Automatic annotation (TrEMBL):
Name the UniProt record assigns to this protein: Uncharacterized protein
Pfam families attached to this UniProt entry: DUF3293
Family annotation (InterPro entries): DUF3293
Chain positions covered by the region annotation Disordered: 1-23
Length: 75
């Protein structure tokens, strides 16, 4: 189970991660469960897919040495 939420920490909801779906198949359970959008991750991009249209927002990935050091100490 995955929990997502807003930056302020005032809203959280449980979610699931599913692998192997194309965009149309990923949007379907989002529509069924009343979601506005679903996330899609690939090695090249992070995308937000609208559930009721074909709209999407695409962002790339960024990494820094600072992020890597922090993740090593957190584990």
């Amino acid at each position: 189970m995955i929990r997502g939420g807003d930056l302020g920490g005032t809203h959280r909801e449980e979610s699931v991660a599913v692998t192997g779906l194309d965009d149309a198949a990923a949007r379907e359970p989002g529509r069924r469960f009343g979601q506005d959008a679903v996330f899609a991750w690939t090695p090249g991009a992070w995308r937000v897919l609208a559930c009721d249209t074909d709209a999407m927002s695409v962002s790339g990935w960024a990494a820094s040495l600072r992020d890597r050091a922090r993740s090593r100490t957190a584990g």
